[in-house]
Design brief:
The structure is a single chain. This protein is mainly alpha-helical and about 100 residues long. It has four helices and two strands. Helix 1 packs across helix 4 (about 85-95). The longest helix is centred in the N-terminal third of the chain and has 27 residues, at about 15-40.
Length: about 100
């Protein structure tokens, strides 16, 4: 209760309740995103590579190498050639907006 009762009144008012609920929703969303990220990050490296995308989505299709690299490049904001957790979350939040 102390975490939610930000004005230390001993009671949780409406504003404190809404803030606590929103933070919980964000946390749960982050947990879901992390779970999804780990599903793509099959080698556990903390990044998603073009090869991991190909393994996930390209099993029954013969897409060229450039297509997978283009997908990475769309999300790879720091230019390191892979998708990290923050880039993945940013992409997913933009899709959800």
């Amino acid at each position: 209760m102390a975490e939610v009762d930000t004005d230390h009144s001993g009671e949780i008012d409406y504003t404190e309740f809404v803030i606590a609920t929103m933070n919980r929703t964000k946390m749960l969303s982050r947990e879901r995103l992390e779970t999804a990220f780990r599903a793509f990050d099959t080698d556990g490296s903390g990044t998603i590579t073009a090869d991991e995308l190909r393994a996930m989505f390209g099993k029954h299709h013969d897409y060229d190498e450039q297509m997978w690299n283009d997908l990475i490049a769309e999300v790879d904001t720091n230019g390191d050639g892979v998708i990290d957790m923050n880039e993945f979350c940013d992409m997913m939040m933009k899709l959800n907006a």
